[in-house]
Design goal:
The chain is of the alpha+beta class. It is built from eight helices and eleven strands.
Amino acid sequence: MPEEITMELARPEIDPIEAPPLRVVPIFQIAAKTDIGKARENNEDKYEFFIPTEEPALAARGSVFVVCDGMGGHEAGQIASELACKTFLYQYYHGSGSPETAARQAVLEANSQIYRMGQTIPSRNGMGTTLTALILCQDKAIIAHVGDSRCYRLLDGAFEMLTEDHTIVHEWVKQGTITEEQAKTHPYRNALHQALGVQAGVEPHVATYELTGAETFLLCSDGVNEHIEDTELAQTLTEYGPSEAAWKLIDRALANGGSDNATVLIVQLTGLSS
C-alpha cells in the first residue's frame, strides 16, 4: 500500500485561552495564490491562515498567516510543509506565554514533528521546509521565520524585507565573501543552512513591529522573489488590491521562468479599530 501523502493530525477544536483586554483589532484584507510552476511535478508550497472570531483568542493571539516551502523527494516536501502549517497553528493557539514566546515554541514543535517523521520513515529522511509566519495581534506584527521564504512590509512608500534568508550564500554576503549582486546568481543561492525538520534543533527568528494600520505585508516562497525584483513587488502591491496583486505576482513569476512552485499571501491593513 502506498504511503500517505499528507499526515492526519487528530486534534481538538481551538479552545479559548486566558487573554488580556482586547484594546485594538487590526482591520485588513487578505489574498493568497499558489502555483506549481513550470518545472515541478507537484506543489510543495503550502499557505494557511487562521482568523479568530472569539474575543479572547483575538486579544491573546490575534490572526496568523503562514507560508511554507517544502523540500525532499517522494512527496516528502509536500508532507513537511503541510505538517509545519498544521503544527505551527495548533501549537501557537494552544501555547502559553506572550505571542512571541508561543510563536517561538510553535516553530520548535513543528521542527520536532517533521524531524521525527524523517527519522522514522526512510523515504522521508532529510525532509524539510521553510516557515514564515506573520501574526497580527492587537497593535503588533510578529514575524516567526526559518528558511528562505520571505515576509516584506510596504509602509509609506518604503518596501522592506522583514526576514533574513537562512542560506549559505546570504551568510557569505554578511561575511563580505561575495556581494549582493553575486549572490543573486550564485549556484548555491538556494542552499539552506537552516530549515524545519532537517536537524533536531533549529533557531527561529522572531521579531516584533508596531502596527500603524496602513501597511501591507507580503509573504512569499522563493519561487516568487527569485523571478521578481523587489522594486516590481513593491510597485504591484502599491498599484493593486490584494487579490489582483496576488494573481499578477504569480503570473509574473511564471512569465519570468517559473522554475519553482510559487506562492504569495498578501495582508493589507486598512486601519486599527479600538
